[in-house]
Amino acid sequence: DAGITQSPRHKVTETGTPVTLRCHQTENHRYMYWYRQDPGHGLRLIHYSYGVKDTDKGEVSDGYSVSRSKTEDFLLTLESATSSQTSVYFCAISATGGRLSNQPQHFGDGTRLSIL
Amino acid sequence: GQQLNQSPQSMFIQEGEDVSMNCTSSSIFNTWLWYKQDPGEGPVLLIALYKAGELTSNGRLTAQFGITRKDSFLNISASIPSDVGIYFCAGQLAHGGSQGNLIFGKGTKLSVKP
């Protein structure tokens, strides 16, 4: 395993509540990503980070914010969860240098989030 | 947004058979990646391709970067039961894509033939 831990693994919450998902890596990799996976859509990028305090938006960033105060942690926050954000969320990392330095090489096992 | 057409959506395999799947697009890509996902787990990177015509193998898996740069193919030879899962292609656009933003296909689900 590449040393990626996502927490929580499962969460059920209500519409309008704030939710924070955590991704923790032990690889000291520079790049970290948050994806969501939905039936019929495959994986879609929400936000990514290319260093501490350096983040950028992905394809489906509306309704999500991220923070990276330490190399090892990348947090995804839903400020006010909506039912459309029910999904499986994956964190991914990639190393600095080499051809894959800005593409996700290793994924966590996902967080299944249900918003009622 | 940009789309990748991955086919087939699903297929059944019998042990020992060869399997083929592909991804196509109307856009040009400069990187192709293939991942496999098992139930309850995240995707695992299988093969990465970086230039047109490139053919790369990883054990029984072989992937090719299409000459037109608009498609990629994955072949699995002599399939075994542990090959079941969902296979995703992903491409990095040559133009217009943002750094770090891969476009994923919707997956090909391999199941064991009943």
Topology:
The complex is a heterodimer of chains A (116) and B (114).
Chain A: E1 4-7, E2 10-13, E3 19-25, E4 31-38, E5 42-51, E6 54-57, E7 64-70, E8 73-78, E9 87-94, E10 106-107, E11 111-115
Parallel strand pairs in A: 2-11
Antiparallel strand pairs in A: 1-3, 3-8, 4-5, 4-9, 5-6, 7-8, 9-10, 9-11
Chain B: E1 5-7, E2 10-13, E3 19-24, E4 29-37, E5 44-49, E6 55-58, E7 61-65, E8 71-76, E9 85-93, E10 103-104, E11 108-112
Parallel strand pairs in B: 2-11
Antiparallel strand pairs in B: 1-3, 3-8, 4-5, 4-9, 6-7, 7-8, 9-10, 9-11
Q: Which descriptor suits the 3D outline of chain A?
A: globular
| Annotation field: number of helices of chain A | 0
Beta content of chain B = over 45%
Helix content of chain A: under 10%
Q: What characterizes the major β-sheet of chain B?
A: 6 strands, mixed
Give the number of DSSP strands of chain B: 11
Low-confidence runs of at least 5 consecutive residues of chain B = none
Structural class by helix and strand composition of chain A = mainly beta
| Mean pLDDT figure of chain A | 91
- What's the helix count of chain B? 0
Helix fraction of chain B, binned, reads under 10%
List SSEs of chain B in N-to-C order. Answer: EEEEEEEEEEE
- The secondary structure category of chain B is mainly beta
Note the run of SSEs of chain A as H and E.
Answer: EEEEEEEEEEE
Can you put this structure into words, describing what you see?
The complex is a heterodimer of chains A (116) and B (114). Chain A is an all-beta fold and 116 residues long. In chain A, 0% of the residues lie in helices and 56% in strands. Chain A contains no helices and eleven strands. In chain A, the strands form two sheets. In chain A, strands 2, 4, 5, 6, 9, 10 and 11 form a seven-stranded mixed sheet that branches. Chain A has a four-stranded antiparallel sheet with strand order 1-3-8-7, with no helix packed on it. In chain A, strand 7 and strand 8 (73-78) form a beta hairpin. The termini of chain A are far apart. By secondary structure, chain B is an all-beta fold. Helices cover 0% and strands 52% of the residues of chain B. Chain B has no helices and eleven strands. In chain B, strands 2, 4, 5, 9, 10 and 11 form a six-stranded mixed sheet that branches. A five-stranded antiparallel sheet of chain B has the order 1-3-8-7-6, with no helix packed on it. In chain B, a hairpin with a 2-residue loop joins strand 6 and strand 7. Chain B is globular. Chain B starts with a strand and ends with a strand. The relative contact order of chain B is 0.34. The model of chain B has no long low-confidence stretch (mean pLDDT 91). Chain A binds chain B through residues 4, 31, 33, 40-45, 48, 50, 56, 58-59, 90, 92, 99-100, 102-110, and chain B through 1, 31, 33, 40-45, 48, 50, 88, 90, 92, 98-102, 104-107.
